[in-house]
Write a structure and sequence with these properties.
The chain is an alpha/beta fold. The chain contains 19 helices and 16 strands. The protein is about 50% helix and about 15% strand. Strands 2-1-3-4-5 form a five-stranded parallel β-sheet, with helices on both faces. The chain has a five-stranded parallel β-sheet with strand order 7-10-13-6-14. The model has no long low-confidence stretch (mean pLDDT about 85).
Amino acid sequence: MTTKRNILIVDDEHSMRDLLESSLASRFQVHVASNGVRGLEILKREKIDLVLSDVQMPGGSGLELLAAIQKDLEYSPVVVMMTAFGTIEGAVEATRHGATDYLTKPFGLDQLNHVLNKCLEHEMLLKENRSLRRNIRTKKQNHGLLGNNHYIESLRETIAMVADSRGTVLLQGESGTGKEVVAQAIHYSGSRCEGPFIRLNCAAIPETLLESELFGYERGAFTGALTTTKGKFELAHGGTLLLDEISEMPFAMQAKLLRVLQEKEFMRLGAKYSTKADVRIIATTNRILKEEVKARNFREDLYFRLNVIPINVVPLRKRKDDIPLLANHFSQIFCAENAKPLMKISDQTLRLLAAMEWPGNVRQLQNVIERAVILSPGDELKEDFFGLSDEMEMTQEIASFDSDMTLRDMERELILRKLSHTRGNRTVAAQELGISVRTLRNKLNIYTDQGVEIPG
């Protein structure tokens, strides 16, 4: 048996209340009130699904009732206003302040049922949409943050603390550790979760285009600007802008970004007026920005502006106990993507995976599992198809460095070895190193100035 939904009829005319009550009693559990004040008392006492209220009433108008509903109730019933022809403006004003629809008196029963059905269907769609958003948000909050290691538990606690703040977040960590996943978790865990999450890779955009990508441009601002185009700041209004690999941003552009962060407004290229920006900034880098500041590669004032909430994302080698969980998770994903039945990873292979150093971190592990899923013919992911010899070779190569070498020396040596291994192919070398081609090019220019011979 289907339970009737509750409707509240609020009208000061006794005959109108009786007519509506008798007309709707077969579909609804009907409650009646003679004015807004008494209607609000019923709303606080009963869980009402739909309110059908007159606009003009002594002792509490429909508009006053609507305002009280939005202010005093913990739930939001559907509200339909009824009005005589002379007070339509009041009903229209009510729709601007939260009423779903209005009816002009006199109206027929068919018209009444049509409006009520439309409003209830609209409310059902809104509820389904909110439910879907909650599900998506929950998945995005947890996506990639798998693990029981104490580092991950601490990271989850930090995300919960900073999610609702407006402070800029600086995520630092090696390439492949999942900094973008953490950024998404912060966004979808906080009050801006309904807003956009916009990402800009500072290393992937040519220097000449970066300003227009960030701030947008007006029509005619430059040759080829045929239409006014929004930049990433404007697209992220009300949400989050992720500036990925912020250390790759050119020095001149850093000054412009600092101004936007300080003044909370930006100007499109070719525009005469600035635009306000309600944007929460999250920046990521695989470098230690404090060292980049000392080396004069990054502005100190911008560093302080970004480093309001610093979060370090640890490498996979510091949470090896999570590797079996991550490996099985990636296996499930890639089996589904490749239309393969769920494939098991043997305990021996899991132990081998957990014993490796993983210089490419979670991204490297993910790629290894994807390769094994694609190449394995049976129902088990066997060691032979993981290509672990190549991964071990990279790990051993890193382990072969002189213990007296500085971090910069080790970085230079690894880059030169990788470039030699790829026979001078900078694109492939950058991909295998997990850095951008621009980063590789900049480092090679520094090495050349130091008199180092570049392979290839």
